[in-house]
Amino acid sequence: MDNIKLYKKITLEIIQCLKDDKIEELEILFEKREKILQEEKNNKNFKDLMINIGIIDLDRTIKNLLNQNMIKIKLEIQKQKLSTITNNTYINNNQQKINIFNAKV
User: Do 39 and 31 form a contact (C-beta atoms < 8 A)?
Assistant: First the structure.
């Protein structure tokens, strides 16, 4: 019974970390959760109790929050790439304007 409460507590901590953007803490929490699952992997009663306390809904919440964070990070990466391309284009364009005075007529 202690593992069930601990598992639920860790799951709620994961959800809170995702909501607060504390990504660096997630790995440790997921490892703790995985350790509990490995200890109880053959325990049918554990699985039934987990379903009864609503872990499936909490796991869906985690999945949705992870997907939202992934989308947010992908958008940030795209913005950064666009900024880099824009800066490089601007620099290259200015260099061509400077070289116009060196051209032979």
Answer: no
